[in-house]
Amino acid sequence: MKIIGALGVAVIGMFMMFDGNAYGQTAPHSQFDATTAAVVDDQGNMHVPADYQTSYQMLGTWAIAEKKGAGSKEMHVVYASPGVIAAYRKTGRYPDGSVLVKEVYKTTTKPMTTGTVSSADTLVGWFVMVKDDVGRFPKNTLWGDGWGWSWFNAADPKKTTSTDYKKDCLSCHVPAQASDWIYSYGYPPLKR
């Protein structure tokens, strides 16, 4: 009887070691994988991941046309955290914990042998989105509609200037609501 009792306690202890959610010991963000948890703190505050240009995958680039004249006024370069592209190709959805980072640049435009060309020049800032299928941060106004949303000025990749995603972010994404708020059609790597 003592052996069974000791064995039972050992098994329960092992389950508690592997289940960090036991007794509420784990913060909600820890349900994300390590890559995502490194971008989001336990209150749902986000920052620009330091290594995204080398460890994330590029999704695509958008050119925002000048209203008058040739060329582009801005370029938006978008990256996805590791594994997002493969998962999206398989399921047609962004998996929980996906991190998207959009760099926003002012451009320089000049004539070249191929014609008038715009290229990225001065970094304006970053827009970061984190997929959240379970509603981890219901009291944080930067989380909702299945995502965390934050803008960061180029001067500070750790402090968002966004205060409420509905006021600061959502209006630009309304045309993409049917595709989970993301303009996925503009990203060649997502196409199967």
UniProtKB/TrEMBL annotation:
Cross-referenced Gene3D superfamilies: Cytochrome P460
Organism of derivation: Herminiimonas glaciei
InterPro entries: Cytochrome_P460, Cytochrome_P460_sp
Phylogenetic lineage: Bacteria, Pseudomonadati, Pseudomonadota, Betaproteobacteria, Burkholderiales
Cytochrome P460 domain location: 49-184
Protein name: Cytochrome P460 family protein
